Amino acid sequence: MGTRSYTVHSVRKVSVNDVSVLNDTGENIVTLITCVRNQPDYLWCVQARAK
User: Fold this and answer.
1) What is the number of other CB atoms lying within 10 angstroms of the CB of residue 14?
2) Cβ proximity of 30 and 9 under 8 Å
3) How are beta strands 29-35 and 6-15 bridged, if at all?
4) Cβ proximity of 49 and 6 under 8 Å
5) Phi/psi at 22 (5° precision)
6) How far is residue 29 CA from its own chain's centroid?
7) Is the dihedral of CA 35, 11, 31, 13 positive or negative?
8) Backbone torsion region of residue 21, taken as left when φ is above 0, otherwise alpha when ψ lies between -120 and 50, otherwise beta
9) pLDDT values of the chain reduced to their tens digit, one per residue, 51 residues
10) Cα atoms found within 13 Å of the Cα of residue 4, Cβ hemisphere only
11) What is the pLDDT of residue 1?
């Protein structure tokens, strides 16, 4: 157990077909993907790196 801290380094809109944001980079990265309101062809992708 414990606490980890992350810093957001990327916020971008990506195509629903773009799975490259989930590729392993070898870094400790958290990726959040969510819908874009009224734009079914896109998703928001937020990525943060461990401090």
Assistant:
1) 15
2) no
3) unpaired
4) yes
5) -100, 0
6) 8
7) positive
8) alpha
9) 899 999 999 999 999 999 999 999 999 999 999 999 999 999 999 999 999
10) 10
11) 82
Residue of 27, 25, 35 whose CA lies nearest to 7: 27
Q: DSSP per residue over 1-51, as a string?
A: -----EEEEEEEEEETT--GGGS--SS-EEEEEEE-TT-TTEEEEEEEEE-
Nearest C-alpha neighbor of 30 from the set 42, 19, 22: 22
Distances (CA, A) of 37 to 15, 17, 45: 13, 17, 13
How is residue 47 written in tokens?
Answer: 């990525």
